[in-house]
Amino acid sequence: MEQTVKVIVFSTPTCFHCNNLKRYLKEKNIKFKDIDVSKDRAAALDMQKRTNGNTGVPVVLINNRPIIGFDKSKINKFLNIN
Fold it and tell me: Residue 61 class from Cβ within 10 Å (0-12 exposed, 13-18 middle, 19+ buried)?
């Protein structure tokens, strides 16, 4: 089955929860685009806009719906993972 959801992770290399989130997505075979907001100021501002000013990471966008933090239950719900 082809993945039709678009997943973007806003993260930093030193963020423990970011690394756990990315590892989890890889374990579930979910393709995602990883954006390092410590190196991409425009992406950091975009992330803040999408999350009403949140500056913390990780933030994951699933079909343009933001989830702040590594909230496994929300991620599973949005991706239909059991």
Answer: buried
* Tens-digit pLDDT profile for residues 11-68: 999 999 999 999 999 999 999 999 999 999 999 999 999 999 999 999 999 999 999 9
Write the burial class of residue 59 (CB in 10 Å: 0-12 exposed, 13-18 middle, 19+ buried): buried
| CATH architecture for segment(s) 8-69 | 3-Layer(aba) Sandwich (3.40)
Decide: pTM greater than 0.85: yes
Do 33 and 7 contact (CB within 8 A), yes or no? yes
